Sequence to fold (196 residues):
Amino acid sequence: MAKYQRLYPGCFYHIYNRGNRGEILFREDRNFNYFLSLYGKYIRPIADTYCYCLLPNHFHFLVRIKEQESIDDDLISWSSRAFSNLFSTYTKAINQAFQRSGSLFEKPFKRKHIDVDRYLFQLVIYIHRNPQKHGLVKDFRDWTYSSYPAIIGYGSTRIQRGEVLKLFGGREGFVKSHSIAEVEGIIKIQFFDNVD
Fold:
């Protein structure tokens, strides 16, 4: 059985995964939307979302597990179960819709504890720029299934917009940092070398 890091209350995590054997996770727009609706159902009760990006064969989320009054193994494993329930429910729907069977996601899902502010800063940029990195769009700002528009926007959102913008010194710093990354390549750090 593969070892994985537990999800502890109050901690930031980069949650990511890809399709089993490189399989496509999101074939149609409705698949992206359904996954996000399930994410809201299963993950919002246990984690605050700082940013995300869904791509056809993988996804990235930056989350902070919500604080609990008493931390015990049941609460810690409950956080991991919420993600597992999300993936299981989505897999069942895709299997039924596309007449497939078996696992859709690689197991276990990946999670990296983020405990340094500069990694939080760089991870937000990395996640948002991922569609451009993979050649899905010429400009990452054009990708629909990303938190970038919600963070630069003014409408209501469940993304932790205020905290993300604070990390970048405000909306202008957020936009500029994402653009500078394109020119200077500041997101090419070893921390992300093995992440797609």
Summary: Residues 66 and 138 are 36 Å apart (CA to CA). Residues 186-196 have pLDDT under 50 and may be disordered.
